[in-house]
Amino acid sequence: MKELVQYLARSLVSNPDAVEVTESAVEDAAVYELRVAKDDLGRIIGKQGRTAKSIRTLLNAAASKTNRKVVLEIVEEK
After folding, report:
1. What is the CATH number of domain 2-75?
2. Are the CB atoms for 14 and 40 separated by under 8 Å?
3. Are 44 and 52 in contact (CB under 8 A)?
4. SS (H, E, C) 3-38
5. How far is CA 5 from CA 14, 67, in A?
6. What are the boundaries of each domain within the chain?
7. In this predicted structure, what is the pLDDT of residue 43?
8. 37 contacts 18 by C-beta, under 8 angstroms
């Protein structure tokens, strides 16, 4: 799953070296935190959040095969 998030994010951004994905487990779900360069944040979120929603949909589809719950958090660096 982590590799899927990295692949999708690196395909979308203009600075793929800045993509960072961390994985943690909370209760019954896996939480993935996605960090990208500040300039690429808009590319990951997309207009009205459509790109982020699409990434989450793909993750949930992949996770449904293993009966797991997945959460994607896009972290904005201050």
Report:
1. 3.30.300.20
2. yes
3. yes
4. HHHHHHHHHHCCCHHHCEEEEEEECCEEEEEEECCH
5. 16, 18
6. 2-75
7. 93
8. yes
CB hemisphere CA count around 69 (13 angstroms): 5
In what helix (H) or strand (E) does residue 52 lie, and over which residues does it extend? helix 50-64
Q: Can you name the residues that pair with 69 across neighbouring β-strands?
A: 29
Residue 73 parent element (H or E): strand 69-75
Q: Whole-angstrom Cα distance, residue 74 to residue 31?
A: 11
Q: What is the pLDDT of residues 21-50, one digit of tens each?
A: 999 998 889 999 999 999 999 999 999 999
What the block records as the tokens of 74 is: 């896009």
Tokens of 6: 């990295």
